Amino acid sequence: MIQALLVLMLATVLPIGNTEQVRVHGVAWHRLPDGRAAMVVRFHVKPGWHMFWTNPGDSGAPPEVKAILPAGWKLGEPIWPRPRILDDDHETVFVHEGEWAWLLPIHSDSAGATPNFEVELQLKWMACQDACVVGRTSVRVAAPTGDLTPLPHQMDGGSYPTTLAAGDSAKVVDHVLHLDLADTGHGSATFLQGVDPGVDVVGSNPVACTVEQGRITLANDLRIRANNARGKPLAIHGLVLLGTKISDPCIAIRLPISDTNDPVQGQPSH
Amino acid sequence: MKKNCLLSMFAASVLALGAVAIAANSEQDKKPSKEVKAEKAEIGKPAPAFTLTTAEGKSVSLSDFAGKTVVLEWFSPYCPWSGMESDDSYWSTGRAAKVVSGIKQADPDAVYLCINSNFDGYDGKSASENGKDSMAIVGSVGVPVLLDLTGVVGKAYGAKSTPHVFIVNTKGVLAYIGAPTTKDGKELFAVEAVKAIKEGKDPKPAETKNYGCGVKYQKKA
Q1: What whole-number distance in Å separates Cα of residue A152 and Cα of residue A154?
Q2: Whether residues B110 and B22 fall in one domain
């Protein structure tokens, strides 16, 4: 207990970066379920303003980070909490409001290693209300001391993605995304796509899933344009959002797409 | 007075053109309760025709540039990713000038136009102030700013952010939609697209993820 408290106290970031619209008000170390250490960056967004999810939607830009790490350590892909969907006359954007936390995993060649060094994070973000601003700060995160505490399932009211449960499936066949998951009683489900160069769900994003007879299912066409992938492997990723509240669960989906036939030359077979 | 004059010129131009897409959107504007989100303009389909007025009062139509590659950049002088001075601004960091110059090198006949769809009164600015503020930023590069105060043209193209770029090829077909460059300015998508069009090829990529501030269309009451 004392050790856990010490970890939280010593991992507190100094100094904290502030702008009028967004404050970075703390960074704490946690252990992710996959064993990696992660810095959890806490943002406070001024009421009425919002920051953006990894796929901001029709406009916006997600936060960016550069981490100064010792040799042998790498920053992993950030983990985002479930976003709120803002829909108005002209656009749909996927956002984070109020208090929210961004997970920045780091890993080394030695699995499960605990970092014992200070990290410098260079953060940049966009925040919008009617107008938009871009903010930046550089923060130094003290090395954790002692064991890292496991990541809570929720922070600041937002849920973090879990993985598919046993018996659930997600696949891409013939340019169609298929989902088949157990219905856990949240009433509705949608698939929200991230940014995947060269791959887009056909129709609007997010896409509504069918919920009936205890299953959540989706069969949605994908528009695949390998020419737009800029040399990156084709893939689709996103979240299955159960229910409608940001505290409801969400499930991460990430699927490589091996079929690289470019529909510019030949349309999907289905 | 000037605002009314601009609006009148715009309305007259639209009527004269009879552009289907624009006319359809004008109808929507008359019926706010039935407004739907603009469909995205699509690669490989004809670019919506338009006539707009520049910040300096000159009427400009897409058809004026028939047979030329036309780059349309949605722009706002009040957005830190677009015209406002910031470390990320497409214009104030010099990225836009680099793109405009790269396009001219790739195809001396190509045309670069900025379109400002901020509604009249956005951020407390009149149409006239919006136009002047826009020209103060892009005028030195020799790029005209077309004012789309009703947002009809922006909606016809599906312009969502500033910046957001649409490139029309020499046949009047949309060939590229997306960001002008990567956010760090290292990849100049718009220049590469114009080069490809000049060589008779389809741009690769033909679509990229746009970023920036939302286009400030007039919201319905």
Answers
A1: 5
A2: no
Q: Count of H helices and E strands in chain A?
A: 1, 21
Q: In terms of domains, do B78 and B182 share one?
A: yes
> Is residue B38 in a domain?
no
Which chain B residues have a beta carbon less than 8 Å from that of A91? Answer: 37, 160, 214-215
Neighbours of A153 (CB within 10 A): 11
| B88 and B12 within one domain | no
Per-residue confidence (pLDDT) for residue A153, from 0 to 100 = 72
* B56 shares its domain with B23: no
Complex-level ipTM: 0.87
Per-residue model confidence (pLDDT) at position B176: 98
Cα–Cα distance for residue pair A56/A132, rounded to 1 Å: 13
B206/A227 Cβ within 8 A? yes
CATH number of the domain that residue B163 is part of: 3.40.30.10
Residue B20 within any structural domain of the chain: yes
Amino acid symbol at B69 = T
Number of domains in chain B: 2
Q: Do residues B74 and B103 share a domain?
A: yes
Asked if residue B55 and residue B25 are part of one domain, the reply reads: no
| Residue B163 preceded by cis peptide, ω within 30 | yes
**β-strand partners of B97:** none
CA-based nearest distance A252→chain B, Å: 21
Does residue B219 lie in a domain region?
A: no
Question: What is the residue range of B24's domain?
Answer: 1-30
Residue of B73 and A31 predicted with greater confidence? B73
Of A126, A133, A230, the CB nearest to B205: A230
Gap between the Cα atoms of A11 and A114, Å rounded = 13
Q: Are residues B23 and B99 in the same domain?
A: no
CA contacts within 13 A on the Cβ side of B213: 30
Q: Rounded to an integer, what distance in angstroms lies between the CA atom of residue B192 and that of residue B194?
A: 6
In a domain, residue B210? The reply is yes
Per-residue burial over A160-183, b = 16 or more CB atoms within 10 Å of its CB, e = otherwise: bbeebeeebebebeebebebbbeb
How many angstroms separate the CA of residue A220 from the nearest CA in chain B? Answer: 19
Same domain, B21 and B63: no
Task: Express each pLDDT in B148-159 by its tens digit.
Answer: 999 999 999 999
pLDDT profile of chain A (270 residues), mean per 10: 41 55 90 90 96 98 96 94 93 96 90 84 94 92 86 81 95 95 95 97 96 96 94 96 96 86 36
Does residue B20 have a pLDDT over 50?
no
Residue with tokens 């969502």: B160
